[in-house]
Amino acid sequence: MEARRLAILSSHICPLGSSQPRGRTRIPLFSTLSFSDCASDSDETKRLRDSQKKVQQNDCVFCKIVCGKSPALKLYEDDACLCILDTSPLSHGHSLIIPKSHFCSLKATPPHVIAAMCSKVPFISSAIMKATGCDSFNLLVNNGAEAGQVIFHTHIHIIPRKARDCLWPSESLRRHPLKLDQNTFKLVNCVQEELSPAGNTEDVNDRGSTLAKN
User: Fold this and answer.
1) Under a CB-based contact definition with an 8 Å cutoff, are residues 64 and 53 in contact?
2) Of 94, 102, 153, 155, which is the active-site residue?
3) Rounded to whole angstroms, what are the CA distances from 1 to 6, 8, 55?
4) d(CA 158, CA 89)
5) Rounded distance between C-alpha atoms, residue 55 and residue 50, angstroms
6) What is the pTM of this model?
């Protein structure tokens, strides 16, 4: 509640943005981002959050950026998400789209938040491509430590690419045709079972959609 009161006060003292259209307003470098309590759920849900999750949010570098406690080179911002330059870029223009709410992984992120982030990809990537002189980019999500996730706050990478930049060593590896053997069919069956309503233990309403049977 204290955080919410501070947010209200700060919005009256120095409101974010102006009467100008957001897309046409130049944002200062290392701008202070709008304050957020890093949650988009209802007040009742917020009160039910345990102390452990609050500690995780307080230590999260992305939450600090969202709350205005840490600087960032901000490219875009709306009510649901913001886009910043990666501080350890793989290429010139490497950017991150992050939700203003704290979710530790893609699986923990509600579908409507993922949709809000992904809906901005064409708009933001187009601007980055023009600014960097690139015509290609990788859209990447590192989900989990073994997949390379370092900051456990959901984020999407937009990585501009140029010809022969040799960014991914795996691109030089030879790809082999899929083997239609017992292991492959077993994999298909296992995934289908997990996706079926009977095999999925998650709340169907939380997933936002159901699997249509063919």
Assistant:
1) no
2) 155
3) 9, 11, 16
4) 10
5) 9
6) 0.68
Q: Tens digit of pLDDT per residue, the chain (214 long)?
A: 444 444 433 443 333 343 344 444 444 444 444 334 444 455 554 554 444 455 456 789 999 999 999 999 999 999 999 999 999 999 999 999 999 999 999 999 999 999 999 999 999 999 999 999 999 999 999 999 999 999 999 999 999 999 988 888 888 888 899 999 999 999 999 999 999 888 666 655 454 444 444 4
Q: Which positions ≥6 away from 101 have C-beta within 8 Å? A: 36, 38, 39, 40, 41, 113
Question: What token pair was written down for 112?
Answer: 């409507």
For residue 38, which of 60, 16, 14, 8 has the smallest C-alpha distance? 60
Tokens (6 digits) for 40: 């988009």
Active-site residue, 155 included: yes
Burial bucket for residue 82 (CB in 10 Å: 0-12, 13-18, 19+): buried
Q: Which domains does the chain have, with CATH numbers?
A: 51-167 (3.30.428.10)
